[in-house]
Write a structure and sequence with these properties.
By secondary structure, the protein is mainly α. The longest helix is centred in the last third of the chain and has 16 residues.
């Protein structure tokens, strides 16, 4: 007896909803001079990590990208990692 779509079929795993690390109380401020914070949102190849992976909200992802690009322009962060 097979379970239908509305039957008792269970999902293989439950994916917990991620929350934005920059919203809420005690959230760190996005600043282009804070290279230690920005480094966490750059891949090992030097690319900006997408919001769906880093769980950053759309508004904060834009701010983060601008801060990373500004920091790169000023020479605080590298464009490409070798």
């Amino acid at each position: 007896m097979a379970m239908g779509a509305s039957g008792g079929a269970r999902r293989p795993f439950f994916r917990r909803r991620k929350t934005c690390p920059f919203s809420g109380d005690n959230a760190p401020k996005i600043d282009y001079k804070d290279t230690k914070l920005l480094q966490r949102y750059i891949s090992e190849r030097g690319k900006i990590v997408p919001a769906r992976i880093s769980a950053v909200s759309n508004l904060k992802q834009r701010e983060l990208a601008i801060a990373i690009k500004r920091s790169r322009f000023l020479g605080l962060l590298p464009y490409v990692l070798k």
